[in-house]
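For practice. Any example?
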Amino acid sequence: MPSSPPVPDPAAEPAGAPTDPGGRLDSGAPAEPPAPAIERARRLTDVVTRLRRALRSSIRTDYPWESLPMAQVELLQTLAAAPLRVGELAARQRLAPNTVSGLVGKLLEAGFVDRQADPGDRRTARIALTPAGLRQLDDWRQAHERRIATALGTLTATDREAVMQALPALDRLARALASPVPAEQPAGTGEQVAPR
C-alpha cells in the first residue's frame, strides 16, 4: 500500500525564508535585544534603583536636608566645576532650559547659587555656587561616603572586593549611558553606522 504524502505543517517556516539566530522569521524589523541581555539590564536596573533609594532614605534619618531633590544636587555638582549659563547647564544635564530655570530658581531662593555677570556677554548671567551651596554639596558628599563606608563594612571581604572590582566597568557603563545613542543599523546591512 503506497504511503501518503506528508501533510505540510502550517506552523513550519516557508522553505528558504530567512531567519535570525533565534530561529524567527526575518521580517525586516529591527531585531530585539537577546533575552539574556534584557534580563541583565533588568537586574542591573533593579539593583541600581534599590541602591539609590536605600542610600537616600537611610541618610535622611540623620540628615533631614537630604530631601533636596536629586536634580538640584546634580546642578550643584555641575556648578562646583565652574559657573555656567542656564543654557549650558541645560545642555550638560540634558534637560529643557525652562526646567533648569525652575531648578535654578529654587537654588537661588535657598541661597545655594547666585547670578554673576558673564564677562563674555553682559546681556547674560552665569549661575555660580555660593559658599552655602558648596557647604551643602560637601555635606551631601560626606554623608553619602560615610553611609556607604558603613554599609560596605557589613559585607564579607569577598563581597567588598567584588564591589570594588566592578567599579571600573560601572564607570564605563555610566559613560556609555551619557554618550549619544548610536544611530540604528540600517536594514539589510551588516555594518553599524558610526555615531556622529
